[in-house]
Automatic annotation (TrEMBL):
Annotated ranges, domain Endonuclease/exonuclease/phosphatase: 4-227
GO molecular function, one term: endonuclease activity
Keywords (A to Z) from UniProt: Endonuclease, Hydrolase, Nuclease
The protein's name: Endonuclease/exonuclease/phosphatase family protein
Length: 234
């Protein structure tokens, strides 16, 4: 099975053709429009088998699968102390394994933006995440940890590790958090401003079954988005 995660930087209706050459079984896209509300027929047809969440039809989080793959949305809570966190889309694939699509959002929070949203989601759904595959745009890296904060990137990674969930990139490339040699994001599409903020986390069975991890070509991708797609083959 081949799975891709990519922040398309909006307007997926004009960019989904870029993904066809990868021939992925499942594609997770951040910042994409709602296929059910688009007038773009080619995009609607491409997205025939999908799940999507978002506050407006133009920018949300989607899971797109080949027609022969069953994706069923799971009813996991997104409420932490009466506040909803954004954006998390859990699903079951082929009645076989669970997948959580992530697009960490600021969510107008003065303190718990981005990685803080995932920290909160972990507190309410940790029991669901054993043996799960977690993929997406985390908008976070260890280099932005703050000394007086208990929900830093490092804290989230540690909590995931406690339930047997680790970053596939860091295991595959034998690199440490915060010392990544492969960027996934280029600020303002500037190749001189690289950061690693997109991740694929999974339990030991995903680490052991990972055959290949690659990234989209920088020059091709930066024509479309400020993020690179991550392509994993299991």
């Amino acid at each position: 099975m081949k799975i891709i995660t990519w922040n398309c930087n909006g307007a997926l209706r004009n960019k989904f053709g870029y993904l066809t050459d990868f021939d992925a079984d499942i594609v997770l896209i951040q910042e994409c429009e709602n296929p059910t509300e688009t007038k773009h027929l080619a995009y609607k047809n491409w997205a025939e088998n999908h799940l999507w969440i978002g506050d407006n039809k133009s920018k949300g989080l989607g899971i797109f699968a080949k027609k022969n793959i069953k994706i069923k949305r799971l009813n996991w809570s997104d409420k932490y102390e009466n506040h909803s966190v954004k954006y998390f889309l859990p699903c079951m694939v082929n009645d076989d394994f669970n997948l959580l699509a992530v697009w960490n959002h600021r969510n107008n929070s003065p303190t718990f933006g981005y990685i803080g949203q995932l920290w909160k989601y972990l507190q309410i759904n940790k029991s669901n995440l054993h043996e799960c595959l977690i993929l997406g745009d985390f908008n976070s890296n260890k280099i932005w940890d703050k000394w007086d904060r208990w929900w830093n990137h490092t804290d989230v990674v540690a909590e995931l590790n406690e339930i047997g969930i680790q970053s596939l990139y860091h295991r595959y490339h034998n690199e440490s958090q915060g010392s990544e040699t492969q960027a996934t994001f280029f600020l303002h599409k500037n190749i001189q401003k690289p950061y690693h903020i997109d991740y694929i986390f999974g339990s030991s069975k995903y680490n052991s079954s990972l055959k290949k991890m690659t990234f989209g070509d920088v020059h091709d991708c930066l024509k479309l988005s400020d993020h690179l797609p991550i392509i994993c083959e299991f």
